[in-house]
Amino acid sequence: MRKKINLDRTRLAMIRGKGMILNVLTDEKERILIRAESEDGGRRIRIRLHENYPGVITYSLDEPIGPKKTELKLVK
After folding, report:
1. Is residue 44 within 8 Å of residue 64, measured between CB atoms?
2. Is-above-0.85 flag for pTM?
3. Dihedrals phi, psi of 30, to nearest 5 degrees
4. First to last CA, the chain
């Protein structure tokens, strides 16, 4: 992974990995905005401070919410 992402020209970067997509962009006030989503959907995204580096925010996925596949059960 790159240590620095240059957003000067594109104003947008997409980072993909471990089932998660991070969209990084800047707004008109030069603030960096991050939008996180899971690739397969239905997952909770945990955002917290890094244990060893207090100035770093980490993103991770929890266990899937509900079943991944639709289930149908016939009841008599």
Report:
1. no
2. no
3. 65, 25
4. 55
Q: d(Cα 5, Cα 41) in Å, to the nearest integer? A: 26
Gyration radius (Cα) of the chain, Å: 17
What tens digit of pLDDT does each residue of 17-34 get? Answer: 888 888 888 888 888 888
Q: Name the DSSP letter for residue 59.
A: E
For residue 21, give the H/E element and its range. strand 20-26
Tokens 């905005």, residue?
33
Q: Residue holding tokens 């240059």? A: 6
Token pair recorded at residue 57: 């925010």
Q: How many CA atoms lie within 13 A of 34 on its CB side?
A: 12
